[in-house]
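Exercise (ungraded).
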Amino acid sequence: DAGITQSPRYKITETGRQVTLMCHQTWSHSYMFWYRQDLGHGLRLIYYSAAADITDKGEVPDGYVVSRSKTENFPLTLESATRSQTSVYFCASTLGRDQPQHFGDGTRLSIL
Amino acid sequence: EDQVTQSPEALRLQEGESSSLNCSYTVSGLRGLFWYRQDPGKGPEFLFTLYSAGEEKEKERLKATLTKKESFLHITAPKPEDSATYLCAVQADSNYQLIWGAGTKLIIKP
Protein backbone atom coordinates (compact mmCIF):
# COMPACT_ATOMS: atom_id res chain seq x y z
CA ASP A 1 0.00 0.00 0.00
CA ALA A 2 1.17 3.50 -0.74
CA GLY A 3 1.69 5.68 2.28
CA ILE A 4 4.11 6.83 4.91
CA THR A 5 5.64 4.37 7.34
CA GLN A 6 7.71 4.94 10.45
CA SER A 7 9.95 2.52 12.25
CA PRO A 8 10.33 1.41 14.89
CA ARG A 9 6.88 1.99 16.43
CA TYR A 10 8.30 1.79 19.93
CA LYS A 11 11.84 2.30 21.21
CA ILE A 12 13.38 2.33 24.67
CA THR A 13 16.96 3.49 25.05
CA GLU A 14 19.31 5.05 27.58
CA THR A 15 20.64 8.56 27.94
CA GLY A 16 23.74 9.22 25.88
CA ARG A 17 22.98 6.64 23.21
CA GLN A 18 22.46 7.43 19.56
CA VAL A 19 19.12 6.44 18.09
CA THR A 20 17.73 6.77 14.58
CA LEU A 21 14.07 6.92 13.67
CA MET A 22 13.14 5.98 10.13
CA CYS A 23 10.53 7.45 7.81
CA HIS A 24 9.64 6.19 4.35
CA GLN A 25 6.99 7.49 1.95
CA THR A 26 5.81 6.02 -1.33
CA TRP A 27 4.02 9.07 -2.76
CA SER A 28 7.15 10.81 -4.12
CA HIS A 29 6.20 13.87 -2.09
CA SER A 30 8.77 16.65 -2.19
CA TYR A 31 8.32 17.88 1.36
CA MET A 32 8.91 15.86 4.49
CA PHE A 33 8.72 16.85 8.14
CA TRP A 34 9.60 15.60 11.60
CA TYR A 35 7.48 16.61 14.59
CA ARG A 36 7.41 15.74 18.23
CA GLN A 37 4.18 15.55 20.21
CA ASP A 38 4.14 16.03 23.98
CA LEU A 39 1.19 16.28 26.37
CA GLY A 40 -0.12 19.81 26.61
CA HIS A 41 1.75 20.98 23.54
CA GLY A 42 0.80 21.15 19.93
CA LEU A 43 2.94 19.32 17.42
CA ARG A 44 6.36 20.99 17.28
CA LEU A 45 8.44 20.96 14.13
CA ILE A 46 11.97 19.59 14.52
CA TYR A 47 13.28 19.60 10.92
CA TYR A 48 11.86 19.65 7.45
CA SER A 49 13.06 18.98 3.94
CA ALA A 50 11.91 20.51 0.66
CA ALA A 51 13.68 17.94 -1.55
CA ALA A 52 16.54 15.46 -1.51
CA ASP A 53 19.67 17.05 -0.01
CA ILE A 54 17.73 20.12 1.20
CA THR A 55 16.93 20.29 4.90
CA ASP A 56 16.18 23.10 7.34
CA LYS A 57 15.59 23.62 11.04
CA GLY A 58 12.18 23.92 12.59
CA GLU A 59 11.15 25.18 16.00
CA VAL A 60 13.03 22.63 18.18
CA PRO A 61 16.08 21.28 16.27
CA ASP A 62 18.65 21.08 19.08
CA GLY A 63 19.96 17.58 19.69
CA TYR A 64 18.62 16.20 16.40
CA VAL A 65 20.18 15.53 13.00
CA VAL A 66 18.45 14.70 9.72
CA SER A 67 19.49 13.68 6.25
CA ARG A 68 17.69 13.16 2.98
CA SER A 69 19.78 11.40 0.39
CA LYS A 70 16.69 9.93 -1.34
CA THR A 71 13.31 11.55 -1.85
CA GLU A 72 11.44 8.73 -0.12
CA ASN A 73 13.47 8.53 3.10
CA PHE A 74 13.95 11.06 5.87
CA PRO A 75 15.68 9.59 8.94
CA LEU A 76 15.90 11.48 12.23
CA THR A 77 18.89 10.86 14.52
CA LEU A 78 19.26 11.73 18.15
CA GLU A 79 23.04 11.93 18.49
CA SER A 80 23.17 11.64 22.29
CA ALA A 81 19.72 10.99 23.70
CA THR A 82 18.48 12.91 26.74
CA ARG A 83 15.41 12.29 28.92
CA SER A 84 13.82 15.49 27.60
CA GLN A 85 13.68 13.85 24.18
CA THR A 86 11.22 11.24 25.45
CA SER A 87 8.23 11.88 23.20
CA VAL A 88 6.13 10.62 20.33
CA TYR A 89 7.73 11.45 16.99
CA PHE A 90 5.73 11.88 13.80
CA CYS A 91 6.91 12.05 10.25
CA ALA A 92 4.78 13.77 7.61
CA SER A 93 4.96 14.49 3.91
CA THR A 94 3.22 16.68 1.37
CA LEU A 95 3.36 17.33 -2.36
CA GLY A 96 3.40 21.12 -2.05
CA ARG A 97 4.26 23.32 0.90
CA ASP A 98 0.75 24.77 1.13
CA GLN A 99 -0.95 21.37 0.73
CA PRO A 100 -2.18 19.22 3.64
CA GLN A 101 0.47 17.14 5.32
CA HIS A 102 -0.02 13.39 5.66
CA PHE A 103 1.32 11.63 8.72
CA GLY A 104 2.78 8.30 9.71
CA ASP A 105 1.60 6.52 12.84
CA GLY A 106 4.52 7.71 14.94
CA THR A 107 7.38 6.33 17.00
CA ARG A 108 6.98 6.32 20.77
CA LEU A 109 10.47 6.91 22.16
CA SER A 110 11.36 6.50 25.83
CA ILE A 111 14.78 7.52 27.13
CA LEU A 112 15.69 6.16 30.54
CA GLU B 1 3.84 36.04 17.86
CA ASP B 2 1.83 33.55 15.80
CA GLN B 3 -0.32 31.41 18.06
CA VAL B 4 -3.13 28.84 17.98
CA THR B 5 -5.40 28.06 20.95
CA GLN B 6 -7.98 25.30 20.99
CA SER B 7 -10.87 25.03 23.40
CA PRO B 8 -12.11 23.22 25.30
CA GLU B 9 -9.24 20.86 26.14
CA ALA B 10 -11.74 18.02 26.50
CA LEU B 11 -15.42 17.61 25.72
CA ARG B 12 -17.73 14.81 26.74
CA LEU B 13 -21.03 14.46 24.88
CA GLN B 14 -23.84 11.98 24.72
CA GLU B 15 -24.41 10.31 21.38
CA GLY B 16 -26.56 12.62 19.28
CA GLU B 17 -25.69 15.75 21.28
CA SER B 18 -24.37 18.36 18.84
CA SER B 19 -21.62 20.80 19.81
CA SER B 20 -18.70 22.86 18.52
CA LEU B 21 -14.94 22.94 19.00
CA ASN B 22 -13.07 26.22 18.80
CA CYS B 23 -9.70 27.13 17.26
CA SER B 24 -8.59 30.72 17.87
CA TYR B 25 -5.56 32.00 16.04
CA THR B 26 -3.26 34.98 15.90
CA VAL B 27 -1.21 35.16 12.74
CA SER B 28 0.17 38.01 10.67
CA GLY B 29 -1.56 36.84 7.50
CA LEU B 30 -3.48 33.59 7.12
CA ARG B 31 -2.55 31.33 4.21
CA GLY B 32 -4.68 28.41 5.39
CA LEU B 33 -6.23 26.70 8.42
CA PHE B 34 -6.19 22.92 8.69
CA TRP B 35 -8.29 20.54 10.78
CA TYR B 36 -7.07 17.04 11.60
CA ARG B 37 -8.43 14.10 13.57
CA GLN B 38 -6.10 11.96 15.67
CA ASP B 39 -7.02 8.56 17.09
CA PRO B 40 -5.02 7.03 19.98
CA GLY B 41 -1.76 5.52 18.79
CA LYS B 42 -2.16 6.98 15.30
CA GLY B 43 -0.92 9.95 13.35
CA PRO B 44 -3.15 12.94 12.58
CA GLU B 45 -5.56 12.40 9.69
CA PHE B 46 -6.40 15.35 7.47
CA LEU B 47 -10.01 16.58 7.49
CA PHE B 48 -10.32 20.10 6.00
CA THR B 49 -8.47 23.14 4.75
CA LEU B 50 -10.06 26.60 4.98
CA TYR B 51 -8.52 29.60 3.25
CA SER B 52 -10.68 32.67 3.77
CA ALA B 53 -13.21 34.10 6.22
CA GLY B 54 -16.71 32.89 5.50
CA GLU B 55 -15.59 29.62 3.97
CA GLU B 56 -17.27 26.39 5.12
CA LYS B 57 -16.43 22.73 4.47
CA GLU B 58 -18.49 19.65 5.36
CA LYS B 59 -17.81 15.97 5.71
CA GLU B 60 -20.44 13.62 7.12
CA ARG B 61 -21.31 14.94 10.62
CA LEU B 62 -18.53 17.55 10.63
CA LYS B 63 -18.64 21.12 9.39
CA ALA B 64 -15.74 23.55 9.64
CA THR B 65 -16.17 27.31 9.45
CA LEU B 66 -13.70 30.20 9.44
CA THR B 67 -13.71 33.83 10.56
CA LYS B 68 -10.83 36.30 10.70
CA LYS B 69 -9.96 35.25 14.25
CA GLU B 70 -11.20 31.70 14.75
CA SER B 71 -12.49 28.50 13.27
CA PHE B 72 -15.21 26.21 14.55
CA LEU B 73 -15.60 22.51 14.01
CA HIS B 74 -19.30 21.75 14.38
CA ILE B 75 -20.28 18.16 15.12
CA THR B 76 -23.90 17.29 14.42
CA ALA B 77 -25.53 14.26 16.06
CA PRO B 78 -22.18 12.67 16.89
CA LYS B 79 -21.63 8.93 17.19
CA PRO B 80 -19.14 7.09 19.43
CA GLU B 81 -16.85 6.59 16.44
CA ASP B 82 -16.39 10.38 16.29
CA SER B 83 -14.43 10.14 19.55
CA ALA B 84 -10.89 11.36 18.88
CA THR B 85 -8.60 14.31 19.43
CA TYR B 86 -9.20 17.11 16.93
CA LEU B 87 -6.23 19.25 16.00
CA CYS B 88 -6.15 22.66 14.36
CA ALA B 89 -3.14 24.18 12.58
CA VAL B 90 -2.58 27.46 10.78
CA GLN B 91 -0.17 28.41 8.07
CA ALA B 92 0.95 32.03 7.83
CA ASP B 93 1.63 33.99 4.66
CA SER B 94 5.15 34.71 5.86
CA ASN B 95 6.12 31.14 6.69
CA TYR B 96 4.93 27.84 5.30
CA GLN B 97 5.47 26.03 8.58
CA LEU B 98 2.31 24.95 10.41
CA ILE B 99 1.53 26.28 13.89
CA TRP B 100 -0.45 23.71 15.84
CA GLY B 101 -2.96 23.93 18.64
CA ALA B 102 -2.81 21.45 21.53
CA GLY B 103 -6.04 19.77 20.45
CA THR B 104 -9.50 19.04 21.84
CA LYS B 105 -10.18 15.52 23.08
CA LEU B 106 -13.75 14.61 22.15
CA ILE B 107 -15.50 11.70 23.87
CA ILE B 108 -18.92 10.58 22.65
CA LYS B 109 -20.75 8.31 25.06
CA PRO B 110 -23.34 5.84 23.71
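Further reading is listed at the end of the chapter. For now, observe: Chain B touches chain A at residues 4, 31-32, 34, 41-46, 49, 87, 89, 91, 96-103 (CB under 8 Å). Chain B has a mean pLDDT of 96.
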